[in-house]
Amino acid sequence: MTVDGTTLITGASAGIGKALAEQFAANGHDLVLVARREDRLASLAEDLEADHGITAEYVPLDLADRQAPYELYEETQDRDIQVDILVNNVGIGTQGAFVENDLDRELDQMQLNMVTPTQLTHLYGGDMADRGEGGVLNVSSTAAWFPGPFMTIYYASKAYMKSFSEGLAGELEPEGVSVTVLCPGPVETEFQERAENEDTPLGSGQMQDVEMVAEAGYDGLQAGKTVVVTGWKFKLLTKVSNVLPNRLTRKSAKGLNTPD
C-alpha cells in the first residue's frame, strides 16, 4: 500500500538518513529532520524546500539521551505536526573487543540503535494505529543475519531491529500501518570513520551507493515489503546464512572486523 504524508527521519544530517530525506522530498513528502548537528539540518532543510517545493522542519537533538524521544514527540505535538511516516535511521557502530571498549560508548550504541527506535515507534506508531494508517521504515543491515566478533553490539543491534520490525509488521498490518526494515550491506558514508573500522576488510572494502540504498528503502516501504535487502550478492548471502555452520559465520565475520 502507498504511504503518504509527513515523514520524520532520524539521523538525517548525513549518510543514509540524508539520502532518505532527499528521496522522500523528491516524492513530495513534507519532512521533519532530526539529528545533533543543527547547522547541517538547517542547510539540508533549506535545500530540500528549494529543490522540491516541500516543507522541511528540523529538530536538533541528541537521541543518545533516553529522554530525547519523548522530547521529540512533545516538540512535534507542540508544532502541530502529524507524523505519518517514521524513519528510524539513527545509529552508530563501534569496532574492537567488547570487554576492552568504552562501556559508555557501547551503551550509547544500544540506546541509539535499539532503544531510541523502539521508543519512537511506540510513540508515533501508536498514533498511526489509532488513525488506521501510516508507515515505519527501520534501517538495519545485512549484519542482522550474523554474529559479529569485534563489532558485537552493532551486529546484535541490527539483528534486534530486523526481528523487531518483522514482529511489528505482523501486529500493525491489520491496523493499516506498514512496517519495512531496510538491510543494506556496507554503504559509503561517514559510518566507517565514526566506527573507527576503516582499517578492517569490512570498512575498507567495496561499498554500496547510498542513493541506491535510500531508493530501495523508499520503494520497499511504498510496496508494502517487510524486509528489503539491497544488492544481489547480499540477498544471496542472507539466503545461505541459515545453512552455514555457526562457527564458520563467526570466523568469517571476525576476519572482516579485524584490522589488517
**What structural category characterises the helix and strand content?**
alpha/beta
CATH topology: Rossmann fold
Number of DSSP helical runs? 10
Strand content is 5-15%
Number of domains as seen in the coordinates? 1
Q: Which of globular, elongated, flat, extended, rod-shaped describes the shape? A: globular
Strand order of the biggest β-sheet = 3-2-1-4-5-6-7
Helix content: 40-55%
Strand segment count: 7
**What Rg do the Cα atoms give?**
18 Å
Give the end-to-end Cα distance, rounded to a whole number of Å. 46 Å
Topology summary:
Elements: E1 7-10, H1 15-26, E2 31-35, H2 38-52, E3 56-60, H3 68-78, E4 85-88, H4 103-131, E5 134-139, H5 152-172, E6 177-183, H6 191-195, H7 201-204, H8 210-222, E7 227-229, H9 232-240, H10 246-257
Parallel strand pairs: 1-2, 1-4, 2-3, 4-5, 5-6, 6-7
